[in-house]
Structures are given as C-alpha cells and as structure tokens.
C-alpha cells in the first residue's frame, strides 16, 4: 500500500457513486414516461458495485435493468391509450429512488471528504521538515 492509496481508493468510490446517481436520475426522469401497452416500458437501471479487481476500492460491476412490463394505468384520454383506455408506465417507486439518491449522494460526499482529508494530511506531512 502506497502513501497515496487513500486518494485512489476514495476516487473509485466517487466514480461508483456518480454512476449510481446517474442511474437514479435517469430512473426519476423517466418515471412518468408513458408508452403504449403493446410497447415495453422504460426499464429502471440499477448499478451493481463490486470490489475492484486489484482489491483497492470499488468498481461498477454492471448495470441491471428492471422489468419492461411496467404498470398499466387507466387513462382513456391519453394519446397513447389502447382501445380499453390503458397506457403503460415504468414500474419505478419514487420513494425508493429518492432513498437511493440520498445514499449515493452521502457516499459521494464521504469519499470526497476522504480525498480532502488525505490531501491535507499529506500537505501537513510535507511541512514537518520546514522550520
């Protein structure tokens, strides 16, 4: 482990949490995207994080998508409504997405604070030899 590993490890956390926030943002942006009942609904995105291959930090192992089945809503006046008056919306829960967004934001901030603290510690260490 080198002296700058703290910054590198926290940097991997920043990257993963940014991608997590991007996925949640996409899900929230498409929560009211209506489609025809014959078409697939927007599929929610979920980031899968895993330990980095070198064991230092974390990485995005993949993006898992939700169901394209969606939920049918009766809106007979909607331009995309079928002959029974139904349209399809993504099956995304707003409260769970907001919770995920707050968790990702807090983790992102914690990683940035780790980088700042490590940088300050390294700067202080360089000042030890100066009179």
TrEMBL record:
GO terms for biological process: bacterial-type flagellum-dependent swarming motility. It is found in: Bacterial flagellum basal body. Residues 84-128 form the Flagellar basal-body/hook protein C-terminal domain. PROSITE patterns: FLAGELLA_BB_ROD. It holds the Pfam family Flg_bbr_C. Keywords: Bacterial flagellum, Cell projection, Cilium, Flagellum. One of its GO terms (cellular component) is bacterial-type flagellum basal body, rod. Belongs to the flagella basal body rod proteins family. The basal body constitutes a major portion of the flagellar organelle and consists of four rings (L,P,S, and M) mounted on a central rod. The rod consists of about 26 subunits of FlgG in the distal portion, and FlgB, FlgC and FlgF are thought to build up the proximal portion of the rod with about 6 subunits each. This is Flagellar basal-body rod protein FlgC. It comes from Kineococcus aurantiacus.
């Amino acid at each position: 482990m080198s002296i700058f590993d703290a910054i590198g490890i926290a940097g991997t956390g920043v990257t993963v949490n940014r991608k997590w926030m991007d996925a949640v943002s996409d899900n929230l942006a498409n929560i009211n995207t209506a489609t025809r009942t014959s078409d697939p609904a927007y599929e929610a995105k979920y980031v899968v994080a895993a330990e980095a291959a070198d064991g230092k930090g974390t990485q995005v192992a993949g993006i898992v998508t939700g169901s394209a089945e969606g939920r049918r809503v009766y809106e007979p006046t909607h331009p995309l409504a079928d002959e029974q008056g139904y349209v399809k919306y993504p099956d995304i829960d707003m409260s769970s997405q907001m919770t995920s967004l707050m968790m990702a934001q807090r983790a992102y901030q914690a990683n940035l604070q780790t980088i700042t603290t490590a940088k300050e510690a390294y700067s202080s260490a360089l000042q030890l030899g100066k009179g």
